[in-house]
Amino acid sequence: EEWGAVLDANQFLGNTASTDSSFGYGGAINTNAGVVFTMTNNLVAQSDASGAGGGLRITTYSGKQVVGTLVNNTIVDNDRGAGGEGILVGDYVTVTLTNNLIAGHTVGITDTSVTNTVSADTNLFWNDADPLVGTNPIQQDPKLTSGYRLGGGSPALDAGLNIPGLTTD
What we know:
With about 170 residues, this protein is mainly beta.
């Protein structure tokens, strides 16, 4: 049975997912076993995972699909160690990313499986490597303040798509 989660306007700062690499997945958030979730207007920063997925790890196993929607999130400076991913997408996942800022990682998004559908539109990426950027990516320094807000001259200012029903950015 699938269950749902809505994460809106939260701050996930400085979290650590285990120092044991056999359990250290998803520094701030780790999904598993048939979840439908939505993340809007969250900050995920300075988190670490000893295994993989410094900021988020989105995965499951056969028969337990994970469906995620990420809109207007700031996912920055997570896990410069292990895999160095801001977001790790594992098996049996459908995820849609729109208007997110993903910066300060070795890799922004790592997709490790052929059983996935990852759609990305109008996201800002500023990482060492970004093999998965989707359509209309902005690949420039986001010019963030020390509090992870958009600074003056940021290419992300007024650059996102309008999302019906989402009034806060």
